Amino acid sequence: MPRNHYMVAIVFLTFFVMSLLTNILGPIVPDIISSFRVSLAAAALLPFSFFIAYGLMSIPAGFLVDRFGEKPVMIAAFLAGTVGSLTFAFHPSYRMAVVSLFVMGSGMATLQTAINPLLRVAGGEEHFAFNSAFAQLIFGLASFLSPYLYSYLVLNLGNAHVNPNGLLRILNRLTPPNLPWASMYWIFAVFTVLMVAVLFFSRFPRVERTANEQAGSWKMYGSLFRKPMVWAFFLCVFAYVGSEQGTADWISKFLSVYHGYDPHTSGALAVSWFWGLLTAGCFVGMLLLKIFDSRYVLIGACVGALVCLSAALFGPAKISLIAFPAVGFFASVMWPILVSLSLNSVSEHHGSFGGILSTAIMGGAVVPVIIGRIADHFGLRAGGAFLYITFGFVLSVGFWARPLITNATVSFAKAEVQPARG
After folding, report:
1. Domains of the chain, CATH where assigned
2. Among 39, 147, 281, 383, which residue is least crowded by beta carbons within 10 Å?
3. What distance, in Å, lies between the first and last C-alpha atoms of the chain?
4. pLDDT tens digits for range 269-301
């Protein structure tokens, strides 16, 4: 099948919008706490409601895509994003925020299931690895830009009456004066509506899903869940996503509480650089994986992340401001290594196993809540220390994983001279 450049661009755009909606939670946590006067644990329920949707929807989404195809499922997913965004935009309250984020998270989980097979077919199997890496780069770019958009809106909405910018004037009329950060939900709604329109008028290629991409049967899932190794990798992916989100979601609040940094500027910038370095670290990780066994790279990355976490939690203000984003740099290689080690540790049912691993993304829901609970009783520094446990579990994988296939590395050893056959 010839390459469909238009559809590849659509998939890349989908990655961008998904990231824009997913990774704005960290910067707005301090605003949620101050605007609605909620506890840290209650604030953590917002990322919980978003990421728990991955746990509930990842496997059912695979069955929906198998049944109805990519186009209608993707349109429904973006419609869910629109409904979730507008629900909060029209009725901004804490309870509505929890509901809207769950609806939006359900849509993003469904998209995650649909777009990878579509990218393989539209871009060509021989280009799938490159296109997947480029899609992650776009995902990271949106994560980096999202906090900047948030800062721009929060800092400028109050001056919209003197600002010639038409967007600010419109948002100023739609957003409550005391909740300028809520304007992000109107932006989300616009993006998701545009994506619905683009998808509706787009012609999708026929996707023949490989065995590794099919959702599988309930019998396959039952067979996998009886294997202790499957549970071990499920928990390690759960711990990684929890570590990632547990760090990103609390950076801004931590810097505000302990070091007095403005969450609208310095805090948002630190979150932005966390995602930016998480993206940049992928390039270094790709190089290291060509030289070293992935388990050794994982061990080194976890040790680096734990050192930076210690500096962020217990170091002075300037060190903490740098160390938190640096955690993202070391975390960058953990996800692809964990997924590859997981899938390379089973000989069959890779599609079903992939669905199980996607369900483990709900670790991003649970860990921030645990941090918030601890923080309410003992302070946010003590809550952040819980990340030692989750990063430590990821670190352990480097010691006990026994994949059937290891990553290919470049050998620098000189070839031995073979004696001539006589």
Report:
1. 5-203+210-399 (1.20.1250.20)
2. 39
3. 51
4. 999 899 889 888 877 877 887 788 888 989 999
